[in-house]
Structures are given as C-alpha cells and as structure tokens.
Write a structure and sequence with these properties.
- This protein is of the alpha/beta class.
- Among the domains are: 1-112, no CATH class; 285-426 and 447-502, Vaccinia Virus protein VP39 (Rossmann fold).
- It is built from 22 helices and seven strands.
- It has helices spanning 8-15, 28-41, 49-65, 70-82, 84-90, 94-112, 118-130, 132-150, 158-175, 180-192, 204-215, 229-244, 255-258, 261-269, 277-302, 318-321, 335-348, 368-374, 396-407, 428-443, 454-464, 474-481, and strands spanning 307-311, 328-333, 356-360, 384-387, 414-420, 468-472, 496-502.
- The model has no long low-confidence stretch (mean pLDDT 89).
Length: 503
C-alpha cells in the first residue's frame, strides 16, 4: 500500500527508523487507533481533558513515526485521507483525523489559556478551530525552509527572508491576526510550552536557522556602529520606541538625535524592521529597564542621594534630559565609547550639563574606585548606581569587584544592575534565540562571558556586604510598566533579570 505513494528512500526511512522513532507497524498504533475509535463511539467531546490528552499522544507518536520529516508527514496524511484501501488496512479514516485535529486544537487552546485573557483565548480558539487549512500549510512551509537550510543558503539571503515573511504571516493568520498584544502573548506561550511548538520538522537545527534569519538584519547594526555595537543597538531601540509606541514607557526626546542623522533617517525609512517580533521583544526589555533605572534614581533623590553613577553609559541620555536634578552625575564607560558618544552629542547640538562628569574606565583593567576618585566622586556620601547591559560582557571576577566596591560605599547607596541567567535553563525556543543574539554580538567583538543563577546571586550580593536586594521577574515588570497595552510591548521568557541592592 505504501509503495503506491512513497519513494524508495521514504519507504526505507519507515522500515528502518532512527533512534527514538517508531515504525508505522508499531504496536502502539493499533492500540491508539482503537482508543480513538472507542472515544468517538462514546461521543467523547473534543474539548474534554481525555480527548485532549489522547490528541497530544497521537501527535507525538506521529512525529516519531515521520522522523521529523514534514514532506513525509504530508504524504502519509494524504494517503490516509484519499486512499480507501489505506483506511481499511490501518483503520485511520478522514473522520477520525478530523476528530484528532479538533481535539488537538482544543488541547493547544487549553495551554494558551494559561497566558491569555479570556477574550484573547477565545480569539485563538476561533482561529485554531476555523483555520484547519493553516494546519495543512505549516508542513509545506517547514519543508521549504529546511530545504534552504540543508542547501547551505545564508539565512540573510532573499529567498530565506521571503520564507520568513510568509512564516510570520501564516503565524498571524493561525493565531492572532493583526493584534500585536495578542501576538506577543502567543509567542511567549509557545516559548514556554513545548507542546505548542509540536510541528513536524521543527527541530533545534531548524529553529536555530529560523532565529538567525530573524536576527540578521533586524537587531544588529550593520555598519557605523562605533566601538561598542551593542550600545548603538540599544539606542536604536530606544529611538524606535519614540516613533512606534504610545503611550511612551520611556519618554526620551533626545533618543533620535543621539543616534545620528544617518541612523535616524534609516530608522524612519524602515520602521517595519523594528516591528519584527525579535526587535519588539528586545525593545520591551530595553525601555522597561531604562525606565526602572530612572524611577529608582528619582527615589534615591527623594532619599537625599546626590551622586548618580551610570556604569556602561553607552548612548544613555538621562543625564542630558534631567540637567537640573540636584547633585552630580558620573558616566562611566570605555574611553573609546565615551569619545564616540561625545562626538555624537556635539553633532546633535546636545548640551553637556555642568553636573556631568565623564569617567573613562575599562572594568577589566582599571578599577572603578580609581576612575571615580579622579572624577571627584565622594566616598563619604551615598550614591545610586545603574549598571544596565554590562555584566554579561565581563568576567565574573570583574563583576564581583565592581559590586564589592559599591558595597563599600556610604550607607544608603544602592545599585540597580542587569544580569543574564544561564541560557541552558531557558525554554528551547528562547534558548536558541538568545544563543543567536549572543553569537551575533560575539562576532562584533562583544562576547557574553558571565551568567548568574538568581538564587546564587542573591547570596553572593549579601556576602559582599549589601544589606538588602530584590529582583523583578518579567511578569512583575509587565504588570508595572506594560499592563493593558495594545501595541505588543511585552517582556517574555528572557534570560535577563534586574536586581536592586542596597548598602
């Protein structure tokens, strides 16, 4: 029966399955077919927990049999749908497949409901149950992308980018339409729930290729990025936020000026590039962490703190937007980065406030204490430090040394810093995405060097001399800054965390 429809290679793959796969003649199949048949005879509702569990088992077994080959999966599905002889032999009928498909769609809705509002869940349910043609379209698109990967085509190449565009459109048609807020939450759910990404042919290798196609040309500056490309990448996202989202989480009227005329023109000419899900996810994190840093600075000023130290300032504009805040501000960064920034400030006509001092420091060669002392920092007075987007580029000992110095500052001092958790502990899709981001940064000379487990870091900070610390989860930050938005800004299952530690 299979010889009528399959090639010799496809037949061989079914006869001699690879490890962790099953043959179509495996004893599990007749048992599962019989179980589905009995469930249908008993009129078991497809939205029942039993039917959904059965559908998930069916899909997992089918994927094991298909050897994760979408082309083979499509052929086998066509055989069962169109060949009455195959239906008689195997016992799988179109009616049975339709029941399984509906039960599986409802099983996925149950998982989505953990991350969505009731109205959002209903919209996803409507699309999943009404869009069975989308289910059939996925294997063909997966096979097409895998063909490009197997042929060694660069993910930045036009044919691959065209497939990515179709992939994104099919994703929206399947789940969320043009609702940006719903799309962000659907993507987070898929990141966190492996059963939601149970597509034939979508293995780690293909996910890595797909993520690279997303990242290339969407997140990383291609040229004129200065001595620290990550600084321009972050500044471009802050600037894009001023144009794309309302209300503003971070109101930064200097964001477009400081990136430079050329970059600002490029940004305005290709805003769709910054609507990409990867870019939007990065931007959500960037604007929230900057806003939190400024809110904690304002709280420190209310407590009487009059020294603000921005470690790894990059193209941060907070000092220039708040020139009248009492006290002194110290921007600490690599000498080359500070010279690059000052040239951009001059070109943009942005005035340097009298309260600001530049502190050129390479964290791994010059101590922070030496740099700040030469700039007039007063160790006898409390200070507030913000340290965003830096620790991952340093060795752990350099991070510890900096925290140790801050812990030795005057009582009432505090530091808000960002760190990255080990990527291995992330959900597979997010892990692969972050590995691609890290690889792109390493290629530009900024490899990630340090990762911290949250519980371990809490103990480390306490041992260094801090009296109190707290860490915000993505969910807490979403509730604080991104609740009830319709533009898709949402912090997902990212590895970055923010900790505030007090002396």
């Amino acid at each position: 029966m299979y010889q009528k429809h399959l090639s010799e290679d496809e037949l061989n793959s079914l006869r001699e399955p690879a490890p962790e796969t099953v043959r179509p003649t495996h004893v599990l199949w007749p048992e599962l077919v019989d179980e589905v048949h009995q469930s249908m005879q008993c009129a078991m509702p497809t939205d029942s927990a039993q039917a959904q569990s059965l559908a998930r088992r069916w899909m997992r077994l089918a994927n094991q049999m298909n050897r994760d080959d979408p082309a083979l999966a499509s052929k086998l599905m066509a055989v069962q749908m169109n060949d009455s002889h195959a239906q008689d032999i195997v016992g799988i009928t179109p009616v049975m497949l339709a029941w399984i498909a509906e039960a599986y769609a409802r099983a996925r809705c149950t998982l989505f409901a953990k991350y969505l509002s009731p109205a959002q869940t209903e919209e996803v349910r409507r699309r999943l149950l009404a869009g069975m043609t989308h289910v059939d379209a996925w294997p063909a698109l997966v096979a097409e992308l895998r063909g490009q990967m197997d042929a060694g085509i660069d993910p930045h190449a036009a044919p691959v980018q065209a497939i990515v565009q179709r992939w994104q459109q099919l994703f929206r048609d399947s789940f969320c339409g043009n609702d940006a807020a719903l799309e962000a939450r659907v993507r987070e759910a898929i990141m966190r729930e492996p059963d939601l990404s149970l597509y034939v042919g979508v293995d780690d290798a293909l996910l890595s290729y797909l993520q690279k196609a997303h990242v290339v040309g969407h997140l990383m500056p291609q040229e004129n990025a200065g001595p620290k490309p990550s600084a321009l990448m972050v500044a471009m996202q802050r600037a894009a936020h001023q144009l794309l989202e309302q209300p503003l989480v971070l109101d930064d009227p200097l964001a477009l000026s400081i990136i430079g005329t050329t970059e600002a023109q490029a940004l305005r000419a290709d805003l769709n590039k910054y609507r990409n899900p990867m870019a939007q996810g990065l931007r959500s994190s960037v604007v929230v962490r900057s806003r939190l840093a400024e809110d904690e600075w304002a709280s420190a000023v209310e407590r009487g703190v009059r020294q603000y130290v921005i470690l790894g300032a990059g193209l941060d504009t907070s000092a220039y937007r708040h020139p009248d805040v009492p006290g002194r501000i110290f921007e600490v960064d690599l000498p080359a980065t500070q010279a690059w920034k000052q040239a951009r400030l001059s070109d943009a006509g942005i005035e340097i406030p009298a309260s600001l001092s530049y502190v050129p420091v390479d964290f791994e060669t010059v101590s922070l204490a030496e740099g700040l002392a030469s700039a007039g920092f007063d160790l006898r007075q409390p200070a507030y430090f913000s340290w965003l987007g830096v620790t991952m580029y340093l060795e752990e000992e350099a991070v510890a040394d900096t925290l140790r110095f801050i812990a030795g500052c005057a009582k009432g001092s505090a530091v808000l810093f960002e760190y990255v958790m080990p990527l291995a502990g992330l959900p597979p899709m997010m892990r692969i995405a972050m590995e691609q981001v890290a690889a792109q940064l390493a290629e530009r000379g900024e490899p990630w060097k340090s990762f911290f487990e949250p519980d371990v870091l809490v103990s480390t900070v306490a041992a260094l001399g801090f009296c109190y610390s707290r860490t915000w989860t993505p969910d807490e930050l979403n509730r604080r800054y991104l609740a009830d938005r319709t533009d898709g800004l949402h912090i997902g299952a990212i590895p970055g965390r923010l900790m505030l530690a007090f002396v």
